[in-house]
Amino acid sequence: LAPKAQYPYTYEGLCEAIDGYNDGHAEKIFMMGTEHERKSELASFLGHTLHESDEWQASREYLMCGDKKVVGTETYCKPCNSESFDFDNFVCNGAGLVGDGLTFNGYCNRVVEPPAACACEDTLKSESAPLDGYIPASKVFFGRGAIQLSWNYNYRAASEALTGDPMTFCEDPDLVATTPAYAWGAGVFFWMENLKEETTCHIEALRNHDFGGTLNNINGGLECP
Fold first, then answer.
1. pTM higher than 0.90, yes or no?
2. How far apart are CA 104 and CA 77, in angstroms?
């Protein structure tokens, strides 16, 4: 199905994400309806996550952290625009979005404040040389996971839904990119709780039997006419 799949997208992590979410919520993912409906919902979920995560290879948003360096236990990302990013070699050419004295928003919405969102910095600055142009992954709320979790307010909501503690992902959002259950859990959270036009992917798949409806919920503005 996905021969190039990479960690953290493990089978064990998927099972842990499903069980963990279902243990804490009355509305269950892949455990409601007839056997056919359960299998159909799971197939829809796997199809979407396969597409959204580049065949289960991307745990972090490529433009934001495809060019990365690891120093000790810390990952540093070089945010980039599409014109400067080399997708073949995962290199951001030039200064990127943070080098040369630029500041970066960090997917920080200051309008939504704690406790409704993670506290965040909207003027992140580059590390000093030799990490010019790079910022710590642990400070940025860019897209991560099987269906990308983005922005500080979504990290707070997902953290509470998946870990029982709203601060887990606020303190280290990169856990979503490095922990199998959370990488899959980001997709589970979106599937079950992202409300668009008064419906969710879960409702569209299970009750309406509409794969197109799940697509509209995820990327309707881009992929649905």
1. yes
2. 12
